[in-house]
Amino acid sequence: MIVVDDGSTDDTPRVLDRYRKHPKIRIIEQDNQGAPVASNRGIAVATSRYIGMLDGDDCWHPQKGEKHVAFLEAHPEIDLSYSWCREVDEKGIPNGAVYCPTEPRATFERLFTHCEIGPTSSAVFRAAIFDEVGAFDGTLRCAHYDQEFWLRIAALRSGNVACIPEILVDNRRWSGQLTNNWEKTAHSFESMMSTLEDLYPDTYGRLASEARALNRKYLAFDALYSGDYLGARQCLSEAWRASPRATLSGRGWLTMAAIILQDLPGGISDHLLRLIRKRRQGS
């Protein structure tokens, strides 16, 4: 295990003190430089055939590593694997939301528009892929640096990105998290899109509007759940301007209704929110 402490300001150094002499744990400490630089630093000293990502606030289920290695060993054509995941709160309690893509293989186009892999902690890939596509882009100090990297892998050859259809990751959502700040996340998305426009101009021309609409619709849901109703409506409006068709696609009708009906009297939006939470929790 390689632990990269990217300039943390909490009690992480004290926690790491207990493991500094552990023969199977290597600790790297650096001034804060962002997730892509920290990831590159850890991967650069790794000696294994496979790399598994795990953000500090997420949790792997016990058999995730074993299952990914077995899957990659059995499928030499796969360069990048990922799994289903579930959301948990600050205490690690599932909130009912589960991310479970239905397609066994993620195409380049799907990764471009939907960020199919989900959280960074879901991914396990071959270490040798770094020799083909390079490292994470250290200039993308944002929430979407991983999506840009996954796209470079998917662009190598068809069918080389695959999903293990099991919940093997807990993705923690907590107050103050970057993914709960829709404005910062939207800005990071636009930084990534600028890079993608340079790398894949044809794909960008065909799919940028859909990708932007889906991103803003997702951020609208996040803003709503965090109580930022004005932000939720702004995100949904931006999604509609980018692509009405993409905004209306898929699920989320109740959530969109809660955003649109926020100004109506009688607590209609609050009632819809309670209904949404019950559905998410399966109650």
Walk me through what this model shows.
This protein is α/β, with parallel strands linked by helices and about 280 residues long. It is built from twelve helices and eight strands. Strands 3, 4, 5, 6, 7 and 8 form a six-stranded mixed β-sheet that branches. It has a two-stranded parallel ribbon with strand order 1-2. A hairpin with a 5-residue loop joins β5 and β6. α4 packs parallel to α8, α7 packs antiparallel against α8 and α11 packs antiparallel against α12. The longest helix is centred in the C-terminal third of the chain and has 25 residues. The protein is globular and about 60 Å long. The two termini are about 40 Å apart.
Give the SSE layout.
Blueprint: E1 2-6, H1 12-17, E2 26-30, H2 35-44, E3 50-52, E4 59-60, H3 64-74, E5 80-88, E6 94-99, H4 108-114, E7 124-126, H5 129-133, H6 145-154, E8 161-172, H7 182-199, H8 201-225, H9 229-242, H10 244-248, H11 253-260, H12 268-280
Parallel strand pairs: 1-2, 5-8
Antiparallel strand pairs: 3-7, 4-8, 5-6, 5-7
Helix pairs in contact: 4-8, 7-8, 8-9, 11-12
Concise overview:
It is built from 12 helices and 8 strands. The protein has 283 residues and is of the alpha/beta class.
Key structural traits:
single chain; Spore Coat Polysaccharide Biosynthesis Protein SpsA, Chain A; 2 domains; 12 helices
